[in-house]
Design brief:
Elements lengths: L4 E10 L3 H10 L8 E3 L4 E7 L4 E7 L9 H7 L2 E9 L2 H10 L8 E7 L6 E8 L11 E6 L17 E10 L4 H11 L4 E4 L2 E5 L4 E5 L1 H7 L13 E9 L2 H11 L4 E2 L5 E3 L8 E6 L1
Parallel strand pairs: 1-4, 5-8, 9-12, 13-16
Antiparallel strand pairs: 1-5, 2-3, 2-6, 3-4, 6-7, 7-8, 9-13, 10-11, 11-12, 14-15, 15-16
Length: 283
Amino acid sequence: MDRQLIGIDHLIIGVRDLEAARARYARLGFNSTPRGRHVGWGTANYCIMFEQDYLELLGIVDPAQFTNDLDRFLERREGLLGIVVGSRDAEATRAAWAEAGTELDAVKALGRLLESEDGPIELRFRNVMPGRAATGGVGLFACQHLTPEPMRRPAWLLHPNGARGIRSCTIATTDTGPVVEAMVRLFGSSTVTDTDNVVAVHTGHGVILIAPPEDTELMHPLVDTTAIGAEPVLAALTLGVADPDRTAAFLKLQGVPFRRSPTGEVLVPPVEAHGVALEFTAA
């Protein structure tokens, strides 16, 4: 079955103050696009673009409009709230997921107006959005970009911290079984490998790790796992960088607290990244 998936497209980071988040991530060494406003919704974003993927800082700018439950998420916390995988063909992805036993609505169109000196630029997408029950409780959907070219201007891809792209994200839960079963349906059994208690889903670009709290803590020592239960939590994000020493030097210059792991990764605590346990490793 050809799911037409091309791997992790972007990760969504929910934030309570969008402008403050943009400034905080700039302090961490990330350039971002101009602000984008979702057409017909009460949400907007800044995107941190890489060559093949990106991070989306997502906030509410009009609480009277549709927020796609972002308001409920932000009542609890800030941080990683969703994994978006890229699709070459949204209809084909939907058909394959349905054949694998995933309950789905029709493909949904979404637009975003990107602010520009020359006026707004319309970006268009087609999304396949399974319900939480079909994803094992993980926020995950597929996205086909219809207008990819305006999103990647050369200046937006260069980051002072040397970041190059997403390497992995980690889902923590005390009950990994339902999440693993969902990932098998969504990505195929051949993409899933099990090592002790940690399961890796090789999406085609980027890896999704699924782990119980104790293994999450071993892999990501700055993650607070004390409150993690059966509900899956996107606990950590690992980015590839050109040179971790350069990343560490930049963060030190900015006065950002961080730690170095025994193998050289640069670890930034969640309090410095709007709830995200952020790790930089050699690409």
